[in-house]
Amino acid sequence: MVTRVCHDGSRATGIELADGRTIDADAVIVGVGTLPNIEWLAGSGVPVDNGVECDETLHAGSGVWAAGDVASWPDPVSGERLRIEHRTNAAEQGMAVARNILADRPSAFTSVPYVWSDQYERKIQIYGLTRGADRMQVIDGSLAERRFTALFGRDGRVTAAVGMDMVRPLRALRKLVADRTDWDTALVA
User: What is the pTM of this model?
Assistant: First the structure.
């Protein structure tokens, strides 16, 4: 657990953990409001852990469906249980739940997760999942210029594309993420 952000006056230099260790960093990003509010569901019979635990169709059982920040589901593409706190995901899941409620046979929810953040004059965008990546390659622009696109991968496949202030070039990389393109093939493309 992080107990404080270390700094040299005007710039973050790392974080201090509850056990006293410090981790040096050039930048620190703070996520606020990332815990799902599920306490009110205690004793309801709705399965909860890191959110409302749904199946791949976003069904939690007994006529209960979930969408958005609170929904946790097994992603058929990554094989991971996901819960994504972003409005794009909430909108996509809301539409999927509506279709599944009306369908004779519900279908699995799949998407290419997308998040963005405007940080002052910078626009940061991410397609896919960077968590667990074992490789990263800047493919356009540069980190030093703070204007770039980069691919993230795991197990030889593209899992995410990240961009800072390069909206169109990043959009072109979405298909590589959606197709879980072979890493070497993606770098040549």
Answer: 0.77
